[in-house]
């Protein structure tokens, strides 16, 4: 760094210290606009851009089966597809399977815990190319119809649960009634695939999972590693050819027809892990909003620097007269802007660090499969580069002003500013206003949409319903499963304050439910335009009364029903509306599944109940079909309890009752329905609050920009205003003059902003609920708010101008 530049930096620092109010305003403006940009950029880097840290990670791909004719719905890969690809796809060096699965840890000596584990193929770690942090990974001989009872822990779980004890290798763990042996610890890099997973265990080669129809297995992720220098397009073509061979030579006619009707095809993409599919788009949208906020902040800072440069014209004139060239003056202006942006960027990095700490606190609820997000050196480097660019951007306007305006002494400190200078400042303020309107309109749409979501009637009262999941290990038969369910329900009814209790196979409330095809016995009832699919839930008799659902036709299940003999189903009104054209549903025979019952005994509809939105207020309207939960073969159930007592008190009593029945039964994923609804809306609420915060900052900066422009202009026009007063202008006329000037600029920005918002609003359409991106009410509300704030910002300096004493103003000359 040259001596001249060093001297300029020192002189700039002293000059900025002499104007603390100005320095503080610019630094805080830039810091407040930079920290959300840095934080969101760090999330995009971690979640969207940065590849997973596996050796030669560019060779790793994830392969899914997508129903192109059914909205691109994806399903996983089963054993037959995995085995087929391993044996015949020569462009790959290996394939591995993994799926997230609950795992119960604990025995009769302690309270059982329900963890999330990853059930994987034995070659899972080999395909990823990672080595154990401690111990060993699975061996091929460990895999079989009943695989070896061995576990590999994640590094995070090893550190939190076992205090990073190296002696953990060989330790016995009781999981689901079986004894498992810990054989190794996986490095932290593997947790990027699923941050929820605490351990890994082997899949079982069950005969039912080896049949051809199990080729497509929901919830299973197929990972492939390409051979070196193999193009992804060539690899996908090879897999597609294998799929066509299977469908032509192996698949049954029924399976082939189902695959053709849904338009199933293979998709291949770089391995990203279990990331929510909508999150990247939402992050980019937030980044766009934060970028707009940064532009507004930069415009505001440039305006302040321009006003400062105009006020320092006498100083620049003296320095120019003493021999300072234009280059020296340009460098002085840039070094001041550099100091301001460097300090603002440092505070922005500190604010981003705090913002990411808050994000990581809520991340398990927003996106539980994503690891914590931290500032990377790449993001810090980009922030420093952005600070350099901003320093040049906000310094160029006063530098250009200095270039076109000769730095000569002015005749008076109250001389009116040049017309072109006022137009430049006004143009910057209009741009601020336009950008602020874009952010306000986006936030207004999300707020309006959120109000509509909250106004949706879910069809039941969630205020006194709580849920908890129970894993029924060791009760796989129908009789054993039904018996333990009856014992649990009887015990729960003994708990004080419990009004209703029931079981349901899936969660009581969840973001989505699996859809299953079904068949009507009468062929003429089939619908070609709407593929017959419905959510299928196993429930106990009291489910409908617990949820407060009304029986509209027929009847519901009875406790005395024997499922193997009496095959009956209950449907909701959405089912009747969609598939039975609103007619009488009782007695209609149907089969849950893509084929007719093999024994010829068709289940029939015995009742119709009111529809409920258990996937959230904005969940899909897919119909529900209810069957007796006793028909389920085990795995687990969700218990719903209606009570006025607190969640903590009730769940404590529930755990005591479960312990009396079977100490191995874990209770997990507990909560109230109100909490579940809040969790389902966390994405929408977060987007609304973040974009709303951006809009509030933008509105504040816009108002400050209008106020600052007019305040400075009033100061420069003190002589003119004094003369107007002296020749008879009233205070009301002066007030109108200044207000008109400010509102004209605000309205120009408003007009430009409306045009820009109309264009960019369409990118928000996917985030809106029953609302058009061109909603006129939102436009009107935002315009009124912006005009009101601008009018207030204009009124304050106008009021000051109206009070100018003409004698004082003229005496100052």
In short:
With 813 residues, this protein is α+β, with helices and mostly antiparallel strands. The chain starts with a helix and ends with a helix.
Give the tags.
eleven-stranded mixed β-sheet; 22 strands; 813 residues; 22 helices; 49% helix
Mean of all residue-level pLDDT scores: 80
Largest sheet features: 11 strands, mixed
Structural class: alpha+beta
- Taken as a percent bin, the fraction of beta residues is 15-25%
Q: Number of DSSP helices?
A: 22
CA(first)-CA(last) distance: 45 Å
What integer value in Å does the Rg equal? 34 Å
Explain what you see:
This protein is an alpha+beta fold. It is 49% helix and 16% strand. The strands form 3 sheets. Strands 1, 2, 3, 4, 5, 6, 7, 8, 9, 10 and 11 form an 11-stranded mixed sheet that branches. Strands 16-19-17-20-15-14-18 form a 7-stranded mixed sheet. α2 runs antiparallel to α8, α8 runs antiparallel to α12 and α12 crosses α20. The longest helix is centred in the middle third of the chain and has 41 residues. It is elongated and about 105 Å long. About 1% of the residues have low confidence.
Secondary structure elements and pairings:
Blueprint: H1 3-17, H2 20-49, E1 60-67, E2 73-75, H3 79-88, E3 92-105, E4 113-120, H4 124-128, E5 134-135, E6 150-154, H5 155-162, E7 172-175, E8 178-186, E9 199-202, E10 220-226, H6 232-249, H7 253-262, E11 264-270, H8 279-311, H9 313-321, H10 326-366, H11 377-404, H12 419-454, E12 465-470, H13 478-493, E13 498-504, E14 515-520, E15 533-539, H14 543-547, E16 551-554, E17 568-572, H15 573-579, E18 590-592, E19 604-609, E20 624-628, E21 637-643, H16 647-661, E22 667-672, H17 673-680, H18 682-716, H19 718-726, H20 731-760, H21 776-802, H22 806-811
Parallel strand pairs: 4-9, 6-8, 15-20, 17-19
Antiparallel strand pairs: 1-2, 1-10, 1-11, 3-4, 3-10, 5-8, 6-9, 7-8, 12-21, 12-22, 13-21, 14-15, 14-18, 16-19, 17-20
Helix pairs in contact: 1-10, 2-8, 2-10, 8-11, 8-12, 8-18, 10-11, 12-18, 12-20, 12-21, 13-16, 18-20, 18-21, 20-21
């Amino acid at each position: 760094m040259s001596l001249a530049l060093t001297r300029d930096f020192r002189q700039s620092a002293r000059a900025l210290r002499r104007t603390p109010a100005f320095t503080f305003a610019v630094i805080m403006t830039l810091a407040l606009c930079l920290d959300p940009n840095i934080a969101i950029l760090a999330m995009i880097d971690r979640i969207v851009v940065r590849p997973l840290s596996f050796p030669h990670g560019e060779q790793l791909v994830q392969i899914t089966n997508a129903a192109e004719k059914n909205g691109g719905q994806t399903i996983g890969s089963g054993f037959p597809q995995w085995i087929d690809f391993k044996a015949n796809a020569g462009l790959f060096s290996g394939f591995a399977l993994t799926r997230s699965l609950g795992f119960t840890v604990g025995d009769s000596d302690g309270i059982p815990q329900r963890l999330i584990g990853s059930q994987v193929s034995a070659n899972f770690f080999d395909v990823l190319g990672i080595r154990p942090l401690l111990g060993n990974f699975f061996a091929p001989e460990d895999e079989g119809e009943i695989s070896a009872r061995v576990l590999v822990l994640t590094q995070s779980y090893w550190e939190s649960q076992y205090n990073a004890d190296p002696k953990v290798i060989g330790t016995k763990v009781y999981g689901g009634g079986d004894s498992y042996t810990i054989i190794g610890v996986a490095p932290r890099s593997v947790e990027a695939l699923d941050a929820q997973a605490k351990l890994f265990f082997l899949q079982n080669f069950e005969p039912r999972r080896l049949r051809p129809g199990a080729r497509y297995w929901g919830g299973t992720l197929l990972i492939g590693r390409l051979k070196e220098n193999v193009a992804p397009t060539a690899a996908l073509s090879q897999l597609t050819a294998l799929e066509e061979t299977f469908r032509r030579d192996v698949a049954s006619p029924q399976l082939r027809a189902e695959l053709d009707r849904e338009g199933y095809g293979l998709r291949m993409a770089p391995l990203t892990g279990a990331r929510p599919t909508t999150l990247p788009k939402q992050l980019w949208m937030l980044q766009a909003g934060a970028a707009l906020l940064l532009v507004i902040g930069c415009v505001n800072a440039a305006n302040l620097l321009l006003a400062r440069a105009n006020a320092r014209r006498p100083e620049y004139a003296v320095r120019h007269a003493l021999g300072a060239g234009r280059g020296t003056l340009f460098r002085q202006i840039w070094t001041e802007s550099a100091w301001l942006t460097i300090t603002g960027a440092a505070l922005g990095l500190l604010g981003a660090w705090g913002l990411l700490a808050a994000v990581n606190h809520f991340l398990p609820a927003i996106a539980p499969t994503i690891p914590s997000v931290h500032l990377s050196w790449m993001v810090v480097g980009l922030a420093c580069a952005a600070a350099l660019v901003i320093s040049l951007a906000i310094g160029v306007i006063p530098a250009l002003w200095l270039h076109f305006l000769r730095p000569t002494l002015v005749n008076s400190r109250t001389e009116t500013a040049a017309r072109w200078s006022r137009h430049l400042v006004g143009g910057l303020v209009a741009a601020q206003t336009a950008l602020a309107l874009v952010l306000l309109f986006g936030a207004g749409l999300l707020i309006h949409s959120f109000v509509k979501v909250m106004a949706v009637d879910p069809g039941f009262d969630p205020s006194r319903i709580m849920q908890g999941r129970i894993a029924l290990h060791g009760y796989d038969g129908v009789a054993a499963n039904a018996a333990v369910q009856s014992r649990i329900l009887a015990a729960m009814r003994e708990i004080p304050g419990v009004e209703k209790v029931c079981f349901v196979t899936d969660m009581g409330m969840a973001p989505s439910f699996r859809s299953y095809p079904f068949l009507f016995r009468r062929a003429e009832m089939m619908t070609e335009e709407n593929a017959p699919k419905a959510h299928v839930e196993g429930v106990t008799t009291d489910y409908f009364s617990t949820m407060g659902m009304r029986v509209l036709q027929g009847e519901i299940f009875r406790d005395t029903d024997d499922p193997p003999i009496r095959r009956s189903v209950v449907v909701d009104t959405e089912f009747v509306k969609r598939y039975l054209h609103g007619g009488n549903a009782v007695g209609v025979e149907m089969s849950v599944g893509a084929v007719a019952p093999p024994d010829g005994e068709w289940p029939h509809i015995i009742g119709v109940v009111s529809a409920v939105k258990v996937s959230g207020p904005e969940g899909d309207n897919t119909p529900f079909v209810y069957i007796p939960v006793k028909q389920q073969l085990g795995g687990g159930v969700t218990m719903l309890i209606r009570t006025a007592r607190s969640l903590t008190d009730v769940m404590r009593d529930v755990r005591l009752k479960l312990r009396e029945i079977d100490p191995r039964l874990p209770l997990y994923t507990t909560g109230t329905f109100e909490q579940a609804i809040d969790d389902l809306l966390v994405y929408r609420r977060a987007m609304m609050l973040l974009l709303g915060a951006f809009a509030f900052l933008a509105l504040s900066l816009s108002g400050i920009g209008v106020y600052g422009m007019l305040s400075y202009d009033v100061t420069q026009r003190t002589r003119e205003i004094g003369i107007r007063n002296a020749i008879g202008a009233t205070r009301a006329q002066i007030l109108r003059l200044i207000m008109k000037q400010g509102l004209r600029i605000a309205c120009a920005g408003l007009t430009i902003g409306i045009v820009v918002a109309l264009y960019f609003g369409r990118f928000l359409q996917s985030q809106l609920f029953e609302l058009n991106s061109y909603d006129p009410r939102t436009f009107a509300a935002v315009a009124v708010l912006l005009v009101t704030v601008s009018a207030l910002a204009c009124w304050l300096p106008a009021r000051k101008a109206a009070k100018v004493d003409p004698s004082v103003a003229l005496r100052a000359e």
